Amino acid sequence: METPPQVLATPAALALIERLKGRHGDLMFHQSGGCCDGSSPMCFPRGEFLVGDSDVQLGAIGETPFYMSRPQFEYWKHTQLTVDVVPGRGGMFSLEGPEGVRFLIRSRLFTDEEYAALEAAGRV
User: Fold this and answer.
1) Which domain, by its residues, includes 95?
2) Cβ-count burial of 12 within 10 angstroms (0-12 exposed, 13-18 middle, 19+ buried)?
3) What are the tens digits of pLDDT across the range 76-89?
């Protein structure tokens, strides 16, 4: 079995990413966990948020890398994440804030076969 992607994006999210790229250049996402803004994926100009050993790159959506804090990843490693867009106020520091929408994570559990493929690939 092929290794399944750990992060995907809806067409609406991809369209918003392209709009934001047009204004801000290359972007990145970070999902830190916790409460308040930390529970939503945050979108930044690439390089504005420094990632390190305490972060895991799950993949890329719209050629935009998506990172998650390692402790949060330990809780969510069994799930495939899908970045979507819904009406509402975005995170305080996230670039979509002025757009009147916010990024949102939807998730589903990987099947046993998918998780085994991720394990075999060293992704979890």
Assistant:
1) 7-120
2) middle
3) 999 999 999 999 87
